[in-house]
Amino acid sequence: MSQAIADWNDAAACKGRDTSVFFPPTVTEKKEDRLLREAAAKAMCQGCPVKDACLADAMTKRDFNGIWGGLTEDERRALSRLT
Ligand code: SF4
Q: Which parts of the chain have pLDDT scores under 50?
């Protein structure tokens, strides 16, 4: 891991917090539960000082699992089609 990546991870708003809301559960999730979970994750991302770096890293790695940089898997897939 590069120093730059380590640095942004250190400043992450989600560091040390419950990050289970960033990923879908292993069991079937109702739509309303998914929307609540995603909203909780996005709220954490909203004021994150490293949001842009987090999103850029997920896009570079083509990591489409979970919420990164304030975007869901589907939102990042859509973004990847535009770039
Ligand atoms: S943007 Fe969201 S997922 Fe990324 S480091 Fe910040 S809080 Fe965590």
A: 1
